[in-house]
Amino acid sequence: MSAQVASPASPASPVSTRRYRFATEVVTVDNKDDPYNAASVPIYQSATFKQKGANAEGEYDYSRSGNPTRTHLENHLAKIMGAKRALAVTSGMSALDVITRLVKNGEEIIAGDDLYGGTNRLLSFLQKSQGIKTHHIDTTNSDAILPYLDPHKTRLVLLETPTNPLIKIADIPTIAAHVHAKCPNALVVVDNTMMSPYLQRPLELGADISYHSGTKYLSGHHDLMAGVIGAKEDSVADQLYYVINATGCGLGPFDCWLLLRGVKTLAVRMDKQQATARRVAQFLEDRGLKVHYPGSRKHPQYELHKRISSGPGAVLSFETGDIGISERIVEGTKLWGISVSFGCVNSLISMPCKMSHASIPAHVRAERSLPEDLIRLCVGIEDADDLLEDLDTALINSGCLLIGDKLEKLSLEQQS
Ligand SMILES: *Cc1c(COP(=O)(O)O)cnc(C)c1O
């Protein structure tokens, strides 16, 4: 592909529109023009592509600019995300890096106050190194954004919903309407990693860009790193593609293939993970623990989440009231691996303040009311009874269930 061309040619078809229900579309990858009718999209593990003649360019010339395996993946992801076009890059953070490069000096970003740790780090870096200011707001209140919207300055509005690990919900349609009414040049961007396109499709709710860490649910097996960006408009996708080609963060052919392979089972994995997560949430609530899960009727934004998504997902967190107890629970489980990240077929347990969110300074964690004893659970596809029994044993051995009066106090608080 020549440097002048704005976007890579598609090897087969343009993005097809969804005709079937999600679970059918996600497992159906278009590969119509394969010369041998390969059932699985081949890996074009090639950096360069030869031309037929000095003036006869083919569809591809160099894999930084475009690669057939990547195009297949991007077309498939665009279909399931309801995007005009999707782009695959080397990690979730590189997806956000590409998106934030649309912000020029003097323009501003508005983002939530309970963000993924890496997102926080990148936004602080932009502020320090390039003077690009981010206003952090409470996205559970849709009107909190109004004073910060400036038609001359606001370029990106960055939302996460549910947030991680406090599981706060943002009303995407209402916030997007506020932004578009006041700032026609601003883009509403949603990090949809926690939900996956199976449960929530921000582009259909008013967002302009939706992105994912493909490392999580999309791949599902914690065996690759990837980021995915979906755009509602071609003009936005062209700008993003320009940055990807200019900086060289397009996803390599083998990882594209792995992601295309992993994503096919997204719906079936998520169904199982979510069903078990509902049981785990109930199990913890029954023991009087304070649980953060949008599938719980006690969640303050239960109705809102239900309106904008088709399920609560498989990440939840809970409080024990004591850091030592939390540590003993985390270390006491056998089936739940102590690990950052989520979205894997295996169940994971972590203490965000000591692990994934440790890069957020302690005083900021306190400001954002992130409890130091919080335990996050990312439910996998193991047998649900085994997972519950393992957790129960760890809870009992930690002494968590022995401090009866505290639990009594907790459950009284929850009832009131
Ligand atoms: C993991 C994660 C990211 C970053 O993705 P990487 O693939 O690790 O770079 C961004 N946002 C959320 C919500 C995440 O969970």
Automatic annotation (TrEMBL):
GO terms for molecular function: cysteine-S-conjugate beta-lyase activity; pyridoxal phosphate binding. Its cofactor is pyridoxal 5'-phosphate. The modification N6-(pyridoxal phosphate)lysine is found at residue 216. InterPro entries: Cys/Met-Metab_PyrdxlP-dep_enz (IPR000277), Cys_b_lyase_euk (IPR006238), Cys_met_metab_PP (IPR054542), PyrdxlP-dep_Trfase (IPR015424), PyrdxlP-dep_Trfase_major (IPR015421), PyrdxlP-dep_Trfase_small (IPR015422). It catalyses: L,L-cystathionine + H2O = L-homocysteine + pyruvate + NH4(+); an S-substituted L-cysteine + H2O = a thiol + pyruvate + NH4(+). GO terms for biological process: 'de novo' L-methionine biosynthetic process; transsulfuration. CDD domains: CGS_like. It is an enzyme of class 4 (lyase). Keywords: Amino-acid biosynthesis, Lyase, Methionine biosynthesis, Pyridoxal phosphate. Its EC number is 4.4.1.13. Pathway: Amino-acid biosynthesis; L-methionine biosynthesis via de novo pathway; L-homocysteine from L-cystathionine: step 1/1. Signal peptide: none annotated. It comes from the Eukaryota. Pfam families: Cys_Met_Meta_PP. GO terms for cellular component: cytoplasm. PANTHER family: CYSTATHIONINE BETA-LYASE (PTHR11808:SF50), TRANS-SULFURATION ENZYME FAMILY MEMBER (PTHR11808). Belongs to the trans-sulfuration enzymes family. This is Cystathionine beta-lyase. It comes from Umbelopsis ramanniana AG.
